[in-house]
Recover the amino acids of this structure.
């Protein structure tokens, strides 16, 4: 078997199938380096005649650890196959971003469909003991001829389009566009290469679903998505946004609030809210707005405005005493508060009404001396 493997990552949830979102689930890139308690981790290329990998030899002690294995099958045409996986205490198998196996059994078999071209199989192995392994076998369910189904060598996998980032390493530092003089350090990123939102987010109301095309689709009534990791200002949130609503009644916002209060915001009737709230679009008026606590403090009729079906690149920065929003490189909102609010450490996304698409989320915090 030909593999690229990376790990170990700590099983922070303690469950047989870890729910923690580790680096490979945020950015599946064979050229990437991921942070871990053990230090920086890079993908290792493995070529083995054995169907079973000894993960202890490759990645280290497996006690309450998680490892990722990637293999690529090249198919001449669409074909049904049978996928069998074995070894770890808990394992998930994804074929072209679709989960086909999630099991705590030592051995599990499931049918799947390969597409013409390169098919990426990702195995997530969760171990409770020091010794851990991972085995995988894929058998065609119809007759195949020479060259109909081959395995991409491990050395060639980094060139597979689905396993590399077109943009290279994520930029950081003072050289970021519109950096406001800050030395920005990456806290979190997600290209939505993985078919679940992940453990770093708390979903409140509505639905936040990763689509097959690799973006986050937002739907529902007043959906809010809260970033679980406390992040003190200065903070920068950068993302791509595509409104899909068929009318002008839209509110797409980023908020910075005290812990536990991101979800408590009402924009009509008896208004309520905490912290700062910067919105691209506003209900049924062509405005962008800044809210401080429960009141609007900036109402801007200046473009840019959301355009249905168009991807916009948005940067929101909270650098006391200023809060700013840039859309497609243009300053859309700015507010300076001489009485900057205290205890702000929670980032959230807010959307109404759906659907709206999000992608390439980056969260930065300023370097501190």
């Amino acid at each position: 078997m030909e593999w690229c493997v990376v790990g170990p990552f700590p099983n922070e949830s303690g469950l047989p199938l870890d729910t923690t979102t580790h680096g490979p689930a945020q950015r599946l890139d064979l050229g990437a380096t991921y942070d871990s308690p053990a230090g920086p981790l890079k993908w290792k290329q493995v070529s083995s005649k054995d169907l079973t990998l000894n993960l202890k030899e490759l990645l280290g002690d497996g006690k309450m650890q998680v490892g990722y294995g990637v293999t690529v099958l090249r198919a001449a045409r669409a074909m049904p196959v049978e996928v069998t996986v074995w070894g770890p205490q808990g394992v998930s198998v994804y074929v072209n971003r679709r989960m086909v196996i999630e099991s705590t059994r030592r051995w599990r078999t499931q049918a799947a469909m390969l597409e013409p071209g390169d098919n990426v199989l990702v195995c997530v192995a969760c171990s409770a003991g020091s010794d851990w392994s991972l085995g995988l076998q894929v058998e065609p369910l119809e007759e195949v001829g020479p060259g109909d189904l081959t395995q991409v060598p491990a050395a060639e996998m980094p060139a597979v389009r689905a396993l590399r980032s077109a943009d290279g390493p994520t930029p950081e530092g003072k050289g970021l566009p519109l950096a406001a003089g800050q030395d920005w350090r990456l806290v979190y990123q997600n290209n939505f290469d993985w078919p679940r939102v992940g453990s770093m987010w708390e979903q409140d109301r509505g639905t936040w679903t990763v689509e097959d095309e690799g973006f986050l689709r937002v739907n529902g009534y007043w959906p809010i998505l809260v970033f679980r990791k406390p992040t003190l200002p200065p903070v920068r949130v950068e993302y791509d946004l595509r409104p899909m609503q068929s009318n002008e009644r839209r509110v797409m916002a980023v908020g910075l609030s005290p812990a536990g209060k991101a979800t408590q915001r009402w924009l009509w009737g008896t208004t309520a809210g905490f912290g700062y709230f910067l919105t691209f679009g506003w209900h049924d008026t062509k405005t962008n707005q800044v809210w401080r606590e429960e009141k609007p403090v900036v109402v801007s009729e200046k473009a840019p405005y959301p355009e249905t079906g168009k991807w916009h690149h948005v940067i929101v920065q909270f650098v006391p005493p200023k809060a700013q929003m840039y859309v497609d490189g243009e300053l859309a909102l700015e507010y300076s508060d001489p009485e900057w609010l205290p205890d702000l450490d929670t980032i959230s996304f807010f959307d109404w009404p759906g659907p709206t698409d999000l992608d390439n989320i980056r969260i930065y915090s300023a370097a501190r001396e």
Remarks:
- The chain has a mean pLDDT of 92.
- The CA atoms of residues 83 and 138 lie 5 Å apart.
- Residues 55-59 form the longest helix (5 residues).
